[in-house]
Amino acid sequence: MNICVVGAGYVGMTTAVCFAEMGYKVRIIDIDEKKISKINEGKIPIYEEGMQELLEKNIERIKATNEYDFSEDIVFICVGTPSKEDGKIELKYVLDAVENVSLKIRDKGIIVIKSTVFPGTTEKILKPLIQKYRKNVSVAVNPEFLREGKAIYDFLNPDRIIIGTDNKRSADLLKKLYEPLKAPILLTTLSEAEMIKYASNALLAAKISFSNEIGNLCKILGIDAYNVMKGVGMDHRISPHFLNSGIGFGGSCFPKDLKALYAGSKEMGYEMNLIKAILKINDKQPLRIIKILEKYIEIEGKTIAVLGIAFKPNTDDIRESRSIPVIHELKRRGAIVRLYDPMAMENAKKIFDDIEYCDNVDEAIENADACLILTEWKEFEKIDFSKMRSKIVIEGRRILKNREGIIYEGICW
């Protein structure tokens, strides 16, 4: 079975290399010539753990191009749906991709929407667009549930596969496509599949914001929030996942999807106040680290080492990273900011052109007045702080193992 993937971003590349690993031939379409050249040379255009190895291993099965011509029967749309200013998603990339595919795809082909779109979008907007050009082409919704940094594992070892479709032929073909993964498959309508993605991300984000609220109160009470949430997570109805208190959630999915869910529901006359509260808590959480820092030093004119700007470890993605508002606030207060991140430095330079970039941890903390650890990279677990001017270390993720000889505090502990 041959597959086409439109979009060579995080979701598209993961989808492509994993389907190739499953034995399928995969063609990737993207408008970025640099990405196309890199892929065809056997180099990944983004960093994701394990992706380079799978691309190299399956390079015979993978080809990248900018040409919308199709011999494949199944085409996955994996382009971005970024947030607009009002919180709703920007659909233009999906619309362009769907139209370009519809013009060239063979009759009886299937266009599969992996891009995250608001419930009802495929049924009301994308399906009519497809049928404008191809009456015999089907559409399906197949949301992704990939953790950045663990995306390859998650694709090949899914908890479940959601297939939203309105006809048996598409359902049967997609079930056969995913058969090698031996995962539970849930067949739904198009809109149900779209909502499952939003509801899943909203619930996980809710667990994080809830944990942060509990963590903030635990800090005031002098209680170990991590031990509290460990006890909470032992309840099988709750599970221990996404219960770590800290600086908040970021990335390409949670903030965007919650904003879209809130904006979309409000437009339909129903205001989702819980979603609004989750977002508000998440916006305020990272700035608590600034208040803690102020207890120890006057920020203006001081050199502050910031360790980590990727929104999580094992990725170079800084979208909605909780480090970004912290750095903005440090700059606003007149601090000299030094940044080090193992993977995300080049992406950080696209946002901040007036901070110091360091090649390693030692360079970042040397003669610094304080250090903020904001991403839980493994190399940050054990650091020698002896070269700091003032050994003030404040954490947003609770990973530091050697805390003796420093003034240490965490955002929720």
Main β sheet profile: 8 strands, mixed
Q: Overall pLDDT, averaged? A: 97
The tally of beta strands, per DSSP, is: 14
Q: What are the segments in which pLDDT stays under 50 over at least 5 consecutive residues?
A: none
Architecture overview:
With 413 residues, the protein is of the alpha/beta class. It has 15 helices and 14 strands. It has an eight-stranded mixed β-sheet, sandwiched between helices. Strands 11-10-9-12-13-14 form a six-stranded parallel β-sheet. The protein starts with a strand and ends with a strand.
In short:
The chain is 39% helix and 14% strand.
Secondary structure elements and their pairing?
Elements: E1 2-6, H1 10-21, E2 25-29, H2 33-40, H3 51-57, E3 62-65, E4 74-77, H4 92-104, E5 110-113, H5 121-133, E6 138-141, H6 151-156, E7 161-165, H7 168-177, E8 185-188, H8 190-221, H9 225-233, H10 254-267, H11 273-284, H12 288-294, E9 303-307, H13 323-332, E10 336-340, H14 345-349, E11 356-357, H15 361-365, E12 370-373, E13 392-395, E14 407-410
Helix pairs in contact: 1-3, 4-5, 8-10, 8-11, 10-11
